[in-house]
Amino acid sequence: MISGNSADILAYLKKIKPGMIVLVASFDDAATKMTDEIRQMFVEMGSTLISSVKHRDNWAFAGRVGIKIKSFFEQRAVNDKNTNVYDGWPEMVEVGGCFPRNSSV
């Protein structure tokens, strides 16, 4: 679990080596701590939804540093007070399946 300021998150992400699998689950204030540089790092891991993650959205993601395709393991539930199902929180999101062995695919 990483909580803290953007500099801590960025420092952690920069330590991840090419080919390593990254698993992320977020809620509440993750979007407010993500700088453009952090979001770009997730794009480079295969994320296509990171630019749309907002405050209190639920976001689950599995990607790989250096992957050349978009990740098929990403879901987002939008925080909307009219549709939230858990007392002010959006529904749960899940990702699952087999992750590609080759990071250049």
TrEMBL record:
Residues 4-66 form the ILEI/PANDER domain. It is found in: Secreted. It comes from the Eukaryota. Keywords: Disulfide bond, Lectin, Secreted, Signal. Its main location: secreted. Coiled coil: none annotated. InterPro entries: FAM3, ILEI/PANDER_dom. Belongs to the FAM3 family. This is ILEI/PANDER domain-containing protein.
